[in-house]
Specification:
Elements (H helix, E strand, L loop, with lengths): L1 H35 L6 H9 L4 H12 L3 E8 L3 E8 L7 E6 L10 H9 L3 E5 L18 H16 L7 E7 L1 H10 L7 E7 L5 H13 L6 H13 L8 H5 L6 E6 L9 H8 L5 E6 L7 H4 L1 H12 L5
């Protein structure tokens, strides 16, 4: 009787353990799918969403470009990544100045047209890549900007070849928003070509771990343990990178290039407090920051177009002549 009771307890505890493990594994697959499964917008959907919040002057500009067939598509093939697409806009007059613009999570290149408008008005050529698994590019999962940094560096080479004109090379700024801001900071920590003169990041996150952890708490009211750990391990197994290694903070520690940090002080999606950690992490090279008062996530330009434009111009003009 005693042995039977003991055996029942062991069987029950083992069953509970197996069930608990199954629940955690299932939840990890769900969380990874929830966060990293692409949900692509069409060009028309992206444009409709874009024009709801951006000034009408930008619509006139994009309409003019489309009318004159001035927005061109270009593509590259990357091993194990597939065919990647980007939109190109040539400067109004020949120039070796180039802006490479990196869009955010679940967005398309068109979502950066307001920033393209800014740089095109400054006489720049503009390249707007569709990130892996976004827009017109191939891909079956989102890399949150981490592996995208390597794709973007390939695009930077393409832009340099395409737009250097009579010069030996271009003068380039890389400017990203949200996930694109994270990508921009991560690129800055790599060994960049001499034609890359400066970076502008707008509301990027400190790390994929911190961003997902914040969303896990806010959306699902769940602690980090165990799901953050198991989902990160699953991401490493399936896609080759973990949430912890995807860190803008660690990349910024290696960055020596000039950088402008932008963040809205009402941002809760990528919390405003992340700005201070990012800014402090960059200890080498020139840096500035612009805090957009009252702006929520990725709304700094929409809320303050003149101030945003002037801040970017003043910063970039220090390094690109």
């Amino acid at each position: 009787m005693k042995h039977a009771f003991k055996r029942t307890i062991i069987v029950s505890l083992t069953t509970l353990l197996i069930v608990a493990i199954a629940i955690v594994v299932g939840a990890s697959y769900y969380m990874l799918g929830f966060a990293l499964t692409p949900r692509k917008r069409s060009h028309n959907e992206a444009m409709e969403r874009f024009f709801k919040r951006e000034p009408s002057s930008i619509k006139s500009w994009t309409d003019s470009l489309e009318q004159h067939h001035a927005i061109l598509d270009t593509s590259i093939t990357i091993e194990k990544r597939g065919t990647m697409h980007a939109m190109c806009i040539k400067a109004k007059t020949p120039s070796n100045k180039v802006a490479v613009l990196l869009h955010g999570y679940m967005d398309r290149a068109e979502s950066m047209f307001h920033i393209a408008y800014l740089y095109h008005g400054m006489g720049y050529n503009v390249l707007l890549p569709h990130c892996y698994a976004h827009g017109d590019s191939d891909g079956d999962h989102i890399d949150m900007g981490w592996l995208d940094r390597l794709d973007a560096m390939r695009w930077m080479d393409v832009a340099n070849e395409k737009f250097h004109g009579d010069s030996a090379q271009t003068q380039m700024v890389v400017h990203g928003i949200s996930m694109g801001g994270f990508t921009t900071m991560c690129i800055s920590g790599e060994k960049c070509p001499s034609y890359v003169k400066c970076f502008v990041e707008d509301c990027g996150y400190t790390s994929v771990w911190n961003e997902f952890s914040d969303q896990l708490h806010n959306v699902f009211s769940l602690p980090d343990m165990p799901l953050m750990y198991t989902t990160s391990a699953l991401c490493k197994m399936r896609y080759g990178w973990s949430f912890t290694e995807a860190s803008a903070v660690e990349q910024l520690k290696k960055s020596t290039s000039p950088m402008l940090f932008i963040h809205g002080d009402a941002d809760t999606f990528v919390p405003y407090h992340m700005l201070n950690e990012l800014y402090s992490a960059k200890t080498q090279g020139y840096k500035e920051k612009y805090i957009a008062p009252g702006s929520e996530h990725a709304c700094a330009y929409s809320d303050h177009p003149r101030e945003y434009t002037q801040r970017v111009k003043n910063f970039v003009n220090k390094f690109i002549k």
